[in-house]
Amino acid sequence: MPEAADQSLESQPPVDGPACPGGPPGRRERRHLETRDEIVRVARQIVIEDGAGRLTVREIARRSDFTPSALYRYFEGGRADILLAIAATSLAVLESHLAHVPQALPPRERIVAMGEAYLRFAREHPSEVALLFDSISASENVDLASPGEAFLAPTGVYRLLESALREGKLDGSFRIREEDLTLVMHATWALVHGLTAVEQSHEQRGGVFGDRGRDVLRAFVNGLGTDWVQGEAP
Fold it and tell me: What span, in angstroms and rounded, lies between the C-alpha atoms of 51 and 42?
């Protein structure tokens, strides 16, 4: 849609009034969210076809019939915000898979089961995995060291993993210092994604892990119950 039409829409009051706090969104807000979703859909297709490195606001505008300036009203950070929105969409698909892991499992088994669910997700949805990490690697100013800013933080993926690790700390299954919790979360994520990346690179030869991926995950999780943190060097 042309920028002029978009400006007209944004300047009009919502036909059905403002949304009530905590209630369903009003018509104007729904239209805004629908437009954002459409922009992300177009951007995802560009990344699938050309890679995240080729994604630009101008190309999104060309394919969605917006002007570049109009797109910035939906994504103030431009390309960086759109890339993170693409990642969030893929993470939501992943979260739906991990959410099927029974929360009643003991922490050790739950983390292993989540890792296996991720491996299955990567096998069944390779394009989502590619979109997720291509968009993250192309993003700027993503602070993976801070739990408040890490790209996992806003998602159920982060909460599911953090919950299992904290429960394991409480029941004595894991020997994790509070200051090391974020490190362990990222290490767990890195291990599971590394397994999927290696498996995908060997896909033409039938993969390399099969069910043995579970054994690798269990060995890692069991190690969290040992004195894995070394003392400071003298």
Answer: 13
Q: Which domains does the chain have, with CATH numbers?
A: 8-76 (1.10.10), 87-223 (1.10.357.10)
Long-range contacts of 177-181 (CB under 8 A, 24+ apart): 177/229, 180/229, 181/147
Identify whether the C-beta of residue 79 lies closer than 8 Å to the C-beta of residue 61. Answer: no
**232: DSSP letter:** P
Is the CB of residue 134 less than 8 Å from the CB of residue 51? yes
Q: Each residue of 19-48: pLDDT tens digit?
A: 455 556 688 888 888 899 999 999 999 988
The beta strands (E) that lie in the chain are given as none
Highest averaged pLDDT of the listed ranges 112-116, 153-157, 227-231: 112-116
pTM of the model: 0.70
Residue with tokens 């297709």: 45
Q: Is the pLDDT of residue 207 over 70?
A: no
